[in-house]
């Protein structure tokens, strides 16, 4: 019988052990330094309840499992942000492959579940790799159901030839659309216009739930994220109005870039503006010597899937299932 201890995570000491565990399930690697940097942006948890007694506010407790040698072999986190849908907690549980099958994952999940019940959460949400059949079975045995499917896609830039796709940029400009980067229009006035564009277009994303963060939080978790630079944020303008955006984020380990966000106002769709923005992003990535671009799409977002895969040629990669357990 394997021996292990479940305890609350010690920050920042445990980040060194947790980062390799997360790299087992995340499509792009992270580091202990990156995890600490993100954690330092978040104030202490402050949960509360609305008039109907539903969970609101934010918190992010973490647990680890130590084996008999004091090595961290598993990790769990339950979290919600102020803009997370009412009552919900999002969580991750990951166990090192060599420690699976001995009850570590179950014990870790029990600790997480007990906390969720104690704070009166109404639903638990997990995102599981579609190729991880063992984890999916673990979730299903505990009452989780598959709610959505998110696809991942990769574009290898060394062999990419955009050809006539770049014409979409010129066509949009001939129609009166101007393209700039946030680096060319710096300052809070531009940032607030960009914020409003994000805010208006986010609800159109299939599967999007919850509310939208306030300006300061949006700025912290979008344009001020590690790996995002003003010159990598491409904005489409109609006069002074911001009508579309593509934001790129670079991973300092793989040197690859991720499409952190793509959005176009509803009344401007169907005019290849999203394609033009995507191609500007491709140009930026190639100029920076990026090996590949990564993006993801909800299975219901057919127009964006068509742009990414059918037009540009992103290669399909294993995605994630959104698994949900109702607690009440």
From TrEMBL:
Residue ranges of every copy of the N-acetyltransferase domain listed in the record: 4-172, 177-328
- Keyword Transcription attached: no
The cross-references to Gene3D superfamilies, in alphabetical order and at most eight, read: 3.40.630.30
Pfam families noted in UniProt: Acetyltransf_1 (PF00583)
Say if the entry is tagged with keyword NAD.
Answer: no
Domain of life of the source: Bacteria
**Organism expressing this protein natively:** Paenibacillus agricola
Which PROSITE patterns does the UniProt entry name for this protein? GNAT
Q: Which UniProt keywords apply?
A: Acyltransferase, Transferase
Its name, as the record gives it, is GNAT family N-acetyltransferase
């Amino acid at each position: 019988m394997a021996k292990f201890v479940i305890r609350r995570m010690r920050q920042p000491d445990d980040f060194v052990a947790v980062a390799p565990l997360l790299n087992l399930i995340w499509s792009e690697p992270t580091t202990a330094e990156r995890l600490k940097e993100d954690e330092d942006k978040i104030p202490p948890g402050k949960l509360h309840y609305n008039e109907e007694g539903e969970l609101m506010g934010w918190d992010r407790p973490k647990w680890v499992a130590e084996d008999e040698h004091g090595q961290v072999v598993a990790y769990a986190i339950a979290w919600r942000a102020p803009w997370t849908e009412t009552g919900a907690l999002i969580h991750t549980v990951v166990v090192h492959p060599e420690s699976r099958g001995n009850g570590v994952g179950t014990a870790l999940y029990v600790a997480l579940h007990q906390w969720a019940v104690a704070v009166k959460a109404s639903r638990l949400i997990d995102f599981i790799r579609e190729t991880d059949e063992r984890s999916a079975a673990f979730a299903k045995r505990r009452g989780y159901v598959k709610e959505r499917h998110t696809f991942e896609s990769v574009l290898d830039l060394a062999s990419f030839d955009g050809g006539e796709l770049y014409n979409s940029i010129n066509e949009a400009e001939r129609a009166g659309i101007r393209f700039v980067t946030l680096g060319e229009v710096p300052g809070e006035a531009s940032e607030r216009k960009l914020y409003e564009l994000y805010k208006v277009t986010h609800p159109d994303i299939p599967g999007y739930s919850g509310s939208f963060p306030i300006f300061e939080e949006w700025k912290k978790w979008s344009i001020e994220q590690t790996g995002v630079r003003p010159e990598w944020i491409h904005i489409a303008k109609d006069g002074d109005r911001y009508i579309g955006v593509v934001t790129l984020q670079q991973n300092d380990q793989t040197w690859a870039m991720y499409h952190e966000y793509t959005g176009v106002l509803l009344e401007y769709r169907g005019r290849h503006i999203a394609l033009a923005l995507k191609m500007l992003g491709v140009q930026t990535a190639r100029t920076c010597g990026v090996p590949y671009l990564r993006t993801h799409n909800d299975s219901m977002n057919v127009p964006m899937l068509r742009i990414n895969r059918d037009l540009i040629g992103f290669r399909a990669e294993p995605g994630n299932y959104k698994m949900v357990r109702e607690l009440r």
